[in-house]
Protein 1
Amino acid sequence: MATILLTGATGYIASHTWLALQAAGFEVVGVDDFSNSSPVVLERLHELGGRPPVFERADVCDAAAMEGVFQRHRIDATVHFAAFKAVGESTAKPLEYYANNLGGLLNVCRTMRRHGCTRFVFSSSATVYGDPESLPIREDARLTATNPYGQTKLVGEQILRDLGAADPAWQTACLRYFNPVGAHESGRIGEDPRGTPNNLMPYVTQVAVGRREFLQVFGDDYPTPDGTGVRDYIHVCDLADGHVAALRRLLDAPGSFTVNLGTGRGHSVLEVVTAFARASGRPVPYRIVPRRPGDVAACWADPSQAQSLLGWQARHGLERMCTDSWRWQQNNPRGFEA
Ligand code: WQD
């Protein structure tokens, strides 16, 4: 069976993808520098996967380190997760975001080329759509970046398109994630942001488990049913399955593609809060505060391209996303910290 390299392998989405790939019969080699994840994830992957994970500690920007990885392992395809991903932070630290996110991508692609490996899955984001002109969002919608993080995803996709145009041997898949939430049903791996969570669900789970006093709801004056922001939340295990489907297509059929990985359904902040309180049995106190700069009112996917091209669609609804998020947080009140 094919061997898949995962960069950013001990991160939230990558660790779930690791398990899904193993269950689908792929061999997996993980690479991470633990700059934004915990080594404890490897112990959990061993426990859940039933065998020691094949792992290399390396910075994807380190050419010598990545060359060593490709010398020690015969890689058939790469899924590139490794990137900084905080929108607000990217505005404050553009140099670090361009250097890491684009420098890492370029180094991984150059190393792959030296070793004749030309199958590449890119972790992209709905952020490339900016403030959508119409909903649901199709892959041919206008693309625009409203922050350096989003720009690194836009430019990353363009690099891969140019690479494929220059050398048809390259087959690439750009997967545009909407809002990943939830956790593996075991409750042994999940989202563990460092410091104050930027994203809604981890903040909600930290309020419910008592680590935070209340949730700030960023605005209730949007043109949405209840005035709060609407997003397409997708279970991280559905997202992981989307990567398996994308890799099977890349390895079995010619051609590159870009698809949305979302459910096609939007939920408001207050709907998420209500669903989570019901699923967890815990109150989630909140206060309405002014809008967060850069937020859009509503964003949800048209996932039909992924369904027709990959035979993939999301299976889990909001209730399951909340119950799985809660199980992870309740069992790991301080995340992966000992
Ligand atoms: C969701 C909704 C907030 C926190 C970002 C990135 C995107 C991707 C996913 C990387 C919005 C509201 C949030 C809080 C709140 N990341 N909210 N209080 O902004 O849709 O997308 O994360 O790929 O690129 O842009 O996700 O979870 O931050 O916000 O009210 O404490 O929850 O206003 O309506 P977002 P989010």
Note: The longest strand covers residues 119-125.
Protein 2
Amino acid sequence: SRKPIIAIDGPAGAGKSTVTKRVAHKLGLLFLDTGAMYRSITLAVLREGLDLRNQEQVTAIANASKIQLFNNPVAEQPMRVLLNGEDITTAIRSPEVTANVSAIAAQPAVRAILVKQQQAIGANGGVVMEGRDIGTHVFPDAEVKIFLTASAKERANRRYADLIAQGQIPPDLTTLEHEISERDRQDSTRTHAPLTQAANATLVNTDGLSIDEVVATIINLYEEKV
Ligand code: C5P
């Protein structure tokens, strides 16, 4: 029997990555940022110069892409990501990848390929997995399910600070808020595994909460249920 799984889903910029890493670190679990996998395929497709809507070619790229993810022991850093052996940790955070990832993630064949890998990684449990569909599709039997959200304005502010921290030049806040809302709209309205709160997920609105408060909330839920 597998160890427990914590599923953390929610819209862009709600703080999932930071919270996921800290919860995993505190509980001694692995973490997996599934968005990094969709970003990796998007990068591969963009590099080939393919039409993103050509599902046959996109699927071929997804099948040919070996994605390796490493938990970074430095809790504040993103997962290290290799694509066919090349380190693409930084490249997958580019504005071009961010702007195009939802179109790739909407394709059922791409989702089937990546969900299978995510299920294999989590097969023994003991993992905190974050994304859009973890509690609804990838691990519908996860012991703890969180739907992490915040207002679009708050999420734009955080993304702005993140981009600066990553050494990128952020667009202005209004543009960022539009981009985030547009990505959420695409992710929530797609046909396959759209972004939605699982019926048995706990909603955590992080507006005005510190990271530590959010982490403590999730750890309490975990200790109640496990
Ligand atoms: O989490 P992040 O913002 O990096 O995710 C990038 C994109 O990957 C999302 O906007 C969404 O289109 C897609 N995604 C998904 N399912 C997941 C994780 C991410 O469709 N489980």
Note: Residues 12, 34-35, 38-39, 101-102, 105, 131-134, 183, 187 surround cytidine-5'-monophosphate (CB under 6 Å).
